[in-house]
Amino acid sequence: MTTSDNTMDSKANRKLLGSRTFNFACHDGVPCFTRCCHNADMYLYPYDIVRMKQNLNMTSEEFLVAHTTTAIRDMPTFPNVMLKMSDRQNNPCTFLTEKGCTVYSDRPYSCRAYPLEPAVYGDADGSMRTQYYVMHHDYCKGHGEDKEWTAKAWIVDQEMQAYHEPNNCWARIAGRLQADSFRAQGLDMNSPPMKMAFMASYNMDTFRHFVFESSFLSRYVVPEQQLDVVKQDDRELLMLGLSWIERFLFSDGALEERA
Ligand code: SF4
Ligand code: SF4
Q1: What does the alpha-carbon distance between residue 56 and residue 49 come to, in Å, rounded to a whole number?
Q2: The pLDDT of residue 125
Q3: Cα→Cα distances 172→69, 76, 87, 89, 215, Å
């Protein structure tokens, strides 16, 4: 699963949490306040883009151009999308001010999950399971605070639940893209299927035009009720986009083709 990986020059380690608890608190009184918002090598999930572009009242295309970079990392034919850091001293996140994060209510999943790091695994029967690790960076003093959490309590406190369905669906697709069956077919990140998959993952405004203004609806069965929702709702549109990727790249998933 794609997760945040803060590559600041401090050492990090992670431990499986299981049913144990961890101590943590992050607030403007910790001596390291906003340290982790600098020079972060942070992967973004598709639903992160939805939340942040809505917060900023931007189109998904505008957000991608202004606030993200891409690079081929763990998927040979599909780019990872990362949050762009500013060129200012110590490379702070562009959303960081002296008072903290300006998109806090819609901050990326990795920002809200930290120090938890979810790892999603696909089982042989097709089901998904998640294990939670606790990350320790030596610069992070939040671990010395008294507040004690279970993984479940932290997930609720950080309002992570809305992310889990789209993130898990994306993790399933990302795992299959990591398997690299496409490069053998001569495809790369600029090939039409990968560009279409990128649009359906990260660029909801363009994907909405594609759904309603191309032959999409004559080729796939989308119930009227679902169509009414995806006209307005980017999260539901993303779920349709991810289903479509599973159908057209892997020939499976919930989205049916018309006979
Ligand atoms: S989005 Fe907010 S919390 Fe995340 S790195 Fe940027 S400033 Fe920090
Ligand atoms: S306590 Fe940890 S998460 Fe909070 S600001 Fe400091 S380094 Fe970042």
Answers
A1: 10
A2: 62
A3: 22, 16, 34, 37, 27
* The pLDDT of residue 2 is above 60: no
Atom of ligand 2 nearest to the CA of 25: 1
Query: Where along the chain do its domains lie?
Result: 12-175, 186-257
Residue with tokens 């999930």: 45
Which class for 187: exposed (0-12), middle (13-18), buried (19 or more C-beta within 10 A)? middle
Q: What is the pLDDT of residue 181?
A: 81
Model-level pTM? Answer: 0.92
- Give the C-alpha distances (Å, rounded to integers) separating 217 from 101, 200, 224, 227: 40, 15, 11, 10
Task: Tell how far CA 197 is from the center of its chain.
Answer: 15
179: pLDDT strictly greater than 90: no
How far apart are alpha carbons 199 and 156 in whole angstroms? 30
Whether ligand 1 lies within 6 angstroms of the CB of 37 is answered as yes
- At which residue do the structure tokens 């901050």 appear? 107
Give the span between the Cα atoms of 118 and 121, in whole angstroms: 10
The proportion of the chain whose per-residue pLDDT surpasses 70, expressed as a percent, equals: 93
Residue 92 pLDDT class (50, 70, 90 cuts): very high
User: Which atom in ligand 2 lies closest to the alpha carbon of residue 37?
Assistant: 8
